[in-house]
Here is the input.
Amino acid sequence: MLSGRLGLEKSRIPHANRHGLIWLERGRLDVEDGCLRFVTAGGAELPAGSYQIPHQAVSIFLLGPGSSVTHDALRLLARHGCALAAVGEGGVRIYTAPPLAPDTSAVARAQVKAWADPQSRMEVARAMYAIRFDEIVRTRDIEVLRGQEGARIKRAYQLAAESHAVTWRGRNYDRQNPEAGDLPNQAINHAATAMSAAAAVAVASVGAIPQLGFIHEDSGQSFVLDIADLYRHDVVLDIAFGAVREAMKSGEAVERVTRRRAAQLMRQRLVIPTMIDRIKLLLGVERAEASPVAGDG
Here is the structure.
């Protein structure tokens, strides 16, 4: 689209002034009389009914299980720069999210600039470890930091297990068969996957580049993994060991309990909003210069 063509670009509400995320499930997202409408049989915290949604003031819709979306709805969302992602139950899986076009390129430019220079790349990595360790990190050797992380996470596992009165026999993770471990190991896997989904939403929302990580390097989701790991020591382990304790009492499948607990705790602790703020802080991007979520204004 040409800049300002037909005045459509200027008619959009800047994403910095929008309300962020809306999570919908078990319903149909459609257009009625030019307005976005969601008709639902009821699910999660949304009672059954028909809801008109002021889509111009929303940045990204998270569409959960049991939902459908019409072509007209997609066209309306695209026209107003609203993104849509398909997520799992409780929002703890992300199945697809389109490439997003933010209001400005500030976050992407800041990320590339920081990533391309070895010194600034190390400073961002050190800042990430400082968040994980909850203390100032003095070394500038990435291998030393990784070693310190390994020792600290082992201690964190033990403390979380003791806090939730769960027996811990050590981390045992087979990538080829992630269900082979005991309940705590399975729960950690599920909780980590849920946190990665939240990080994917946050990274997509600010228009950052998933491939350019500061600690992780090889994965196509390296920056997503970097952000998810900021919550590894506290939130992920709280989700996992709390879910094990609950599953042992109820006899319910640990994966289901972990997903439900992840959805509850991540909502209570505002995980995605804090991820967005931390991304901007780590990259040195002022809130006013970058939209919190994407759109193609």
Q: What stands out?
A: The chain has two domains: 5-87, 106-289. Residues 145 and 162 are 26 Å apart (CA to CA). The beta strands are 21-24, 27-32, 35-40, 49-53, 60-63, 68-69, 83-87, 94-96. The mean pLDDT is 83.
